[in-house]
Amino acid sequence: MKNIIIANWKCNPENLEKAGELLAKIKDKISDLSWSGKIDVVICPPFPYIACLNMEGTDIKLGAQDCFWEDKGAYTGEVSPLMLEDIGCKYVIIGHSERRKYQKETDQMINSKVKASLLRGLKTVLCIEGSSQIKDDLKDVSKESMGNLILAFEPIFAIGTGKPCSVDLALKENTEIRKIIGDSLPILYGGSVNSSNAKDYIEKANYNGLLIGGASLNPEEFFKIIASLEG
Ligand code: PEP
Questions:
Q1: Are 149 and 184 in contact (CB under 8 A)?
Q2: Domain that includes residue 172, residue range
Q3: Nearest residue by C-alpha to atom 4 in ligand 1
Q4: pLDDT for residue 34 is more than 70
Q5: How many CB atoms lie within 10 A of CB 59?
Q6: Which protein residues touch ligand 1 with a CB less than 6 Å away?
Q7: How distant is the alpha carbon of residue 146 from its chain centre?
Q8: pLDDT category, 36, cuts 50, 70, 90?
Q9: 204 lies in a domain?
Q10: How far apart are CA 63 and CA 41, in angstroms?
Q11: Distance 68 CA to ligand 1 centre (A)
């Protein structure tokens, strides 16, 4: 299975010019690597920037940080999987703990979003704090429709805190998640990943990639994380 590195820019940076500069620096840095084909790199900017970023000359893919469960209609403020697909998004993050907390997203809402984005063929990154959420978040999602599903284990205590999860606990959770979803889907780790701990989550805790918040806003550090998985 290929490793997947996903940058979650969250509500950053504060304007389009800075977003363009950040992307240009990341493109420039990772073009030095001979990783092409070995790792999938995905950037998830805020919605307004997605269609405006210049993705020419790079294998980096675009993703969104959320989407709605309907394709169109009277749903003020929402962005649909159909719209994301139309502007070239390949990935979407669903159920991030910050959305569960601040937007009060429930497992039922997340379940509807997962189904809608899978139906559109988007690679759907379902964030969970632990294996107990899988049952509700994937309720009535058939095995056949799960081909584009990616799980991301993101322990709340590690998100944006600089206090990463221990490799032992990450491995334990990975094993629990695997017992439920089987061997075929990728599982990512997210939570205070940096260039010193990234490799351990992949090599010692058996993850298939990383979901990276804070460190993805620093092109040098983001590059170092990717480079650390090369060796
Ligand atoms: C995240 O936002 O998904 C995340 C893992 O953030 P951070 O890397 O900053 O902990």
A1: no
A2: 3-216
A3: 213
A4: no
A5: 14
A6: 8, 10, 154, 159-160, 190-193, 211-215
A7: 16
A8: low
A9: yes
A10: 10
A11: 22
Q: How far is the centre of ligand 1, averaged over its atoms, from the C-alpha of 133 (Å)?
A: 19
Question: What is the tens place of the pLDDT at every residue in 79-122?
Answer: 999 999 999 999 999 999 999 999 999 999 999 999 999 999 99
Q: Would residue 224 count as lying in a domain?
A: no
The pTM of this model reads 0.97
Sole residue written with tokens 């606990």 = 169
User: Which positions ≥6 away from 227 have C-beta within 8 Å?
Assistant: 33, 195
Q: Which residue owns the Cα nearest ligand 1 atom 3?
A: 213
213 Cα–ligand 1 center, Å: 4
Domain tally, the chain: 1
Active site residues: 96, 154
Mean pLDDT of 3-19: 98
User: Which atom of ligand 1 lies nearest, measured to the CA of 193?
Assistant: 8
Tell me which H or E stretch contains 210: strand 209-212
- What tens digit of pLDDT does each residue of 54-88 get? 999 999 999 999 999 999 999 999 999 999 999 99
Q: What residue's CA is closest to ligand 1, atom 2? A: 213
Q: What's 162's domain CATH number?
A: 3.20.20.70
Angstrom CA distances, 166 to 25, 155, 197, 200, stand at 31, 11, 10, 10
- The verdict on residue 169 lying in a domain is yes
Question: pLDDT exceeding 90 applies to what percent of the chain?
Answer: 93
Instruction: Decide if pLDDT at 35 tops 70.
Output: no
Q: How far apart are CA 220 and CA 123, in angstroms?
A: 27
DSSP state of 65: S
Q: Is 97 within the bounds of a domain?
A: yes
| Ligand 1: nearest atom to the Cα of 96 | 3
Ligand 1 midpoint to CA 35 (Å):
23
